[in-house]
Specification:
The chain is of the alpha/beta class. It has helices at residues 15-28, 41-51, 67-75, 92-101, 113-124, 135-143, 154-157, 161-171, 176-183, 187-201, 206-215; strands spanning 6-11, 32-38, 55-58, 61-62, 65-66, 82-87, 105-108, 129-130. Helices cover 52% and strands 15% of the residues. Keywords: DNA-binding, Phosphoprotein.
C-alpha cells in the first residue's frame, strides 16, 4: 500500500445501501476514498470507464444484469481495475460466476466496515479475499476433482423443483413479491410453496429456512 487512499467505485442497485457504505468508508478511515457509484450495469460501466477507480465494489444481482456483466464490459478496457464482489448472496453459483468473470474476491454484506476496508486494501494489493465459507466454493469449482458432486439429502429430496426455486430466492433475501416476479407466479402461489416447504422441513420461519438452505448449499 502507498500513502494514497485506494479509490473505490460502488455498484449496487439499492441507493440506501450505497449511501450507507459510502458514509461508513468515508467516516472510519483515510485508507480508501469513494470516487463514484452506480445503480445499474449501464451506469456502472460508464462511471468506471470515466473515473478509473482502483477497486470496484460490485453487487452480484441487479435488475438489468449482474456483476459478471459489468466485469465483462469493463475488463477489456481497464484490465488493471480490481473487482471485489459485495453481495447479500452466498450462493455457490453466484460466487463461482463472478470469480470466473474476473473478480478478485467475494464478501457478503454481513461484513463489518473495518473488515470491508481491509478487504478493499488487500485486493488493491493483489490478494484474493473471500468471506470464510465462500473460499471452499471456489476451490471446489476450480479443483475439478472427483467427489465434488452434491451428496443426496433425503430432506432436500422431499421438495419439488419449484419449491427449491422459491426456497433459493427466499434464502437470498428476496421478498415474496420479488420471488413471484422472478418466477412468473403469483404472490399467493409463493406463499403456498413457502408453507409447504416449512411443513416438509418442520421449520417455523424464513430465517430458519435460510439457514437450512445455506447449510445444504442450495443458495
Amino acid at each position: 500500500m502507498t500513502d494514497s487512499p485506494v479509490t473505490v467505485f460502488l455498484v449496487d442497485d439499492h441507493a440506501l445501501f450505497r449511501a450507507g457504505v459510502r458514509t461508513e468508508l468515508d467516516s472510519i478511515t483515510d485508507e480508501v476514498r469513494v470516487v463514484g457509484e452506480a445503480g445499474s450495469v449501464a451506469e456502472a460501466v460508464a462511471g468506471i470507464l470515466r473515473v478509473k477507480p482502483q477497486v470496484v465494489l460490485l453487487d452480484v444481482h441487479m435488475p438489468d444484469g449482474g456483476g459478471a456483466e459489468v466485469l465483462r464490459r469493463v475488463r477489456t478496457e481497464l484490465p488493471d481495475v480490481v473487482f471485489l464482489a459485495l453481495s447479500v448472496s452466498d450462493a455457490a453459483e453466484d460466487v463461482i460466476a463472478v470469480i470466473r468473470a474476473g473478480a478478485r474476491g467475494y464478501v457478503t454484506k454481513t461484513i463489518s466496515s473495518k473488515e470491508l476496508v481491509r478487504a478493499v486494501s488487500r485486493v488493491a494489493d493483489g490478494d484474493a479475499v473471500f468471506s470464510p465459507r465462500l473460499a471452499g466454493f471456489v476451490l471446489d469449482a476450480f479443483a475439478d476433482r472427483p467427489g465434488s458432486a452434491p451428496i443426496s439429502d433425503p430432506e432436500l429430496d422431499l421438495l419439488t423443483p419449484r419449491e427449491r426455486d422459491v426456497l433459493r430466492l427466499l434464502a437470498r433475501g428476496y421478498a415474496y413479491k420479488e420471488i413471484a416476479s422472478e418466477l412468473f407466479i403469483s404472490v399467493k402461489t409463493v406463499e403456498t410453496h413457502v408453507s409447504s416447504v416449512l411443513r416438509k422441513t418442520q421449520l417455523s420461519n424464513r430465517y430458519e429456512l435460510s439457514r437450512w438452505a445455506s447449510d445444504r448449499r442450495l443458495v
